[in-house]
Amino acid sequence: MGEIINKVKTLDVVTIDVKDFYLLGKREQINMSDYLEDGILIEKKFRKKLLDFDWSIYKDKYVNVFIDKNQIIPSWAFLLLSYHLNENSKDHVIGNVRSLEEKLYNITLNNLDISSYENRKVIIKGCSDIPYIEYVYSELTRRLSKVVLSLMYGEPCSRVPIFKKRL
Known about the structure:
The protein contains five helices and seven strands, in the order αββαβαβαβαββ. It is α/β, with parallel strands linked by helices. The protein has two domains: 76 residues, no CATH class; 64 residues, no CATH class. Helix 2 packs parallel to helix 3.
């Protein structure tokens, strides 16, 4: 009987784990409705609330600011709120949780050295429990498909081909 060869170990592929693109850190939300009086933003009261608020609670946190109802908020209010968050949070967005996560993913994805994958066979690892994983899959595919020899999804032992560059 011949020697058993582990063909998975002999594969010349690079595996990318999508969870490596998830920035760890506490997430918080701010509801713009908390700054309204009967659904209306009153500038003087709004400014006072912002000045009196202890913004340090958002230090070292990622924050998204959202509106939970169809309310009309003047654009300057978001700028003023952003000003306070710039000084007191790790990062923030005006939008929903998904907008925040996509922004944070882009920070890490922009640090990816795409050239290191040039003409390589790449597997984007599946089975991760990070939020909005489809966004990371899409961005990795968009960025890598320009340079890799082939792109696959899954694990080295069980992979699904996405595309293969024609030589």
